[in-house]
Amino acid sequence: MTVYTGLDVHKETYHATVLDEDGETIRQERFPNSLEEIKSFFSGIEGGKVALEASYYWEPVYTELEEIGFEVKLAHPRKTRVIADEKIKTDLRASEALAQLVRMGWLPEAYVPRKEIRDLRELLRRRVSLVNSRTKYRNKIQAELAKRRIELEGTPWCGPWLNQLHDLEIDPVEDYMIIIRSLNDRINRIEKEVEEKAEKTEEAMLIKSIPGFSYFSAMTIYASIADIDRFPGPKELCSYFGVVPSTEQSGGKKTHGPITKE
């Protein structure tokens, strides 16, 4: 017997509803958000389909259920709300709605790339986060210099400039530089890993052949697209990247607004 599970995922808890082929509720529970609790809840359920709504916390449980052997569906949040809008909104009702939609084959799905691409996206996001942190501490150092009316010669953050900065022996600057050096090590390690992956990825190297694209930007484009066949044509691809202007047309009048991303 195939069973259908709707999983409403929150930071602290899960709300789950399991339905049989006839839509009858087999199990309905609320339990803590942990992978151990997920394994415990699904331990008595063999096979079937699981639907969960895309949220900040979806990926770990999606991967876990995938590894256990379930057919996992990621619901498109906005489209799911349009179909399953209810006057009484509770977390258990939400999980029940997801289970019903996946049972009837009406679940609007969000695209989920294969695990290799998901891992690559996480690596690229981590590099962006580390670079942003480094920029924050560099700005703090510049603020310390500005407070003291100090201007150093040369290109900022390059050899002679850094030597002058070190010779100043300003305590806050020294503290920030320790953090920056640590961030540099981690950023360089990730960039080396991204470069090695790019060298083995034909699509990324094709993108990098375009003037102005680095290994990082090429891999970012590659990871964002994931599967080019999911786009019917170039217009849909451009819209996905948010470079298509919005259009309003009424009564023979057409106006173009800000770019859209869909």
From TrEMBL:
GO MF terms, alphabetically ordered: DNA binding; transposase activity
Domain Transposase IS110-like N-terminal residues, every copy: 6-145
Entry annotated with the keyword Protein biosynthesis: no
Short name of one Pfam family: Transposase_20
Residue intervals of the Transposase IS116/IS110/IS902 C-terminal domain: 206-261
Signal peptide: none
NCBIfam families: transpos_IS110
Transmembrane segments: none
GO biological process: DNA transposition
Keyword Coiled coil: yes
Top-rank taxon, per record: Archaea
Record's keyword terms, sorted: Coiled coil
Positions in coiled-coil regions: 173-204
Organism: candidate division MSBL1 archaeon SCGC-AAA259E22
Name this protein carries in UniProt: Uncharacterized protein
